[in-house]
Each structure stands twice: as structure tokens, then as C-alpha cells.
Amino acid sequence: MQKLKYNGWYNYETWNFKLWLDNEQETQNMVNSLIIDCKKDVHKLSKELEQYAYNGLPLLKGFYSDLLNASLREINFYEVAEAYIEDLKQVEKQLPA
């Protein structure tokens, strides 16, 4: 089955994850720290974002646990990391030399 894009993102889950990361200042600050720590390494940043998502999992059982885990597996963490790195590069281009 072919995946459909959602608002320009890989899928709904990816779009929703990025939306929530950008939704609060505290989370934005955490992401900015991760970007700096990862030194613009997209792969490393994607793994850190994935770890962040899985560390926040509530303790659920049965059906709801299966649904939540299935949704998390659908997130394209690499695409989100790429977007953050690209945004940083665009900001850096605008800075005076």
C-alpha cells in the first residue's frame, strides 16, 4: 500500500509529531539543544528525536498500547530531523558574516 503525504509530510503521524514538537517553547528549546548536540548530523538527530518520543510513552496495556506503538512506528523521524537541520541552515544563511 502506498503512503499518502499529509500537509507535505510523509504521513499524518510525522506531521503531528513535528507539530507537537513546535507547539511549546520548552519543547522547542529541547529540540534546539538536540540540534546543537548532534552537530547537524541528521541521522543522529533523528535517533534522538525517536528516543524522545519513545521515552514519553505512557504505560498502557492491550489495545491502546498496540495503537499507540503502531502510530509511533509510522513517524518518519529522519524527515523531521532533516527539516530542523534545513531550517537551521536557512537561518545561518541570513546571519551577517
What brief labels describe this structure?
single chain, 97 residues, 5 helices
Kindly describe this structure.
It is a single chain. By secondary structure, the protein is an all-alpha fold. The protein has a domain of 50 residues. Helix content is 70%, strand content 0%. Helix 3 packs across helix 5. The termini are far apart. The mean pLDDT is 92.
Quick summary of this structure?
The protein has helices at residues 12-21, 25-37, 42-55, 62-74, 77-94. The protein has 97 residues and is mainly alpha-helical. It has a domain at 40-89.
User: β content, as a range?
Assistant: under 5%
Q: Averaging pLDDT over every residue, what do you get? A: 92
> Helices and strands: which structural class?
mainly alpha
Q: Tally the helices: what do you get?
A: 5
Proportion in helices: over 70%
**Secondary structure: number of strands:** 0
The first-to-last residue Cα distance is 48 Å
| Unreliably modeled segments | none
The sequence of SSEs as H and E is HHHHH
Task: Give the overall shape.
Answer: globular
Rg, rounded, reads 15 Å
Major sheet, described briefly?
none
Task: Spell out the blueprint of helices and strands.
Blueprint: H1 12-21, H2 25-37, H3 42-55, H4 62-74, H5 77-94
